[in-house]
Amino acid sequence: MRTLGYPQTRLARPFMDLDAQRRGLDNLTSARDMTAMLQAIYEGKIISPAASAEMLRLLRLLGLQNDPGLDYIGRRLKPSIAHLNGSFTGIRNEAASIEAEGRRYILTVFLRGQPDESAAEDAIARASEQVLFEDVLRQQPGGGIA
User: What is the pTM assigned to this prediction?
Assistant: First the structure.
């Protein structure tokens, strides 16, 4: 993954291979690498334009069919979301390309060691809302927060 431009990402086992995980093999990434991957998918630069388009289609399907309990961003906003999130005990992750109010932004949040998982989910929702209203919409020509 380093040679592809994702220096903090390591794929050491198949997803959910718990035996390999017990042997110390794990998959790791960073919010920075995940943001770069989402941007590359959106720009059609992962593998090929067709492969990127299919990845984006699948990520958008996840945004449409999300379990309400895992819909951290959609709790406060109803944007178009292409995303992948994850949760384990004490962990809440979200990597999303979000389209709202005619603007697109990427938000990637990884939270670990969270004793209050509901509060962690709300923090992700608040972060997305803050980015949208305080950063993205202020950049609109003649626009801003209504």
Answer: 0.74
